[in-house]
Amino acid sequence: MFAFAAVVAALVLFGVAGLRIANQYERAVVFRLGRFRAIMGPGLYWIIPLIEWQSTVDMRIKTAAVEQQETITRDNVPIKINAVVWYRTVDPRAAVLEVRNIDNAVIQVALTTLRNGIGQHTLDDVLKEQDKVSQLMERKIDAATEPWGVKVERVEMKNVEIPASMQRAIAQEAEAQREKRARIIKAQAELEAAEQLRQASQIIMQNPAGLELRRMQMITEVGAEQNTMTLVMMPSEFVAAAGAIARLAAQPQ
Question: If phi over 0 gives left and psi between -120 and 50 gives alpha, with beta otherwise, what is residue 149?
């Protein structure tokens, strides 16, 4: 009886020792005597103690910071750049069997891709089209990590440092562009003002009396200012007419 109880207890302990639990975001790659057997999880499962063992893989998205790299753009400008990579494991079997340290492998691929990829673009592309450059690097990194069962979700350039001399050159270029736009706007305003004056002159030429009315209005506006002396320039016709009237008035009746 005692022997039977001992056997039962040993079987229970043997069964309990093989129980495993994997979280919803985990998968277990199970090996039997060194050979791949199955992928287990999530939830409760059982493996044969001492004969089978497992390697757990996290299926969640991971974030890897790519350390700053110094490289040269296609137009021979030295820059320092770092990036962030988001990736996740989609094939636990390949992630365990094909590469030893999946996280370190992804970071190293991202380093080389970042350094070599920036060399294929000009400085303007890196500064103005960061999204396009990031998407291109994302496709290259994803192609390299696909045999390892890894999917690259996103790549973003975190910081781009350029030499101080190049910063000054870019600032001068931006200032020149702003000055150019200001001059164009001013020239357009002067053109519109000249067009308005041309139309006004055509209207006045159709009715010469309007010119005199405008002259009198201008004199009124100037005279409204305090401490202002106004000199009125009269047309020669008015002066001649006034002189004729004065001579007629001076003649004897």
Answer: left
Residue 2 structure tokens: 């005692």
Alpha helices (H) along the chain: 2-17, 92-97, 102-118, 123-128, 130-145, 164-206, 209-223, 236-250
Q: Which helix (H) or strand (E) holds 69?
A: strand 62-72
Q: What is the pLDDT of residues 227-245, one digit of tens each?
A: 556 555 555 555 565 556 6
- The SS3 assignment for 109 reads helix
The torsion of the CA quartet 245, 249, 251, 253, rounded to 10 degrees, works out to: 130
Domain boundary among the residues 145, 162, 179 is at 162
What distance in Å separates the CA atoms of residue 28 and residue 24, rounded to the nearest whole number? 11
| Nearest Cα residue to 82 out of 95, 93, 69 | 69
Q: Which pLDDT tens digit goes with each residue over 24-79? A: 999 999 999 989 999 998 999 999 888 999 999 999 999 998 888 888 888 888 88
Q: How many domains, in total, are found in the chain?
A: 2
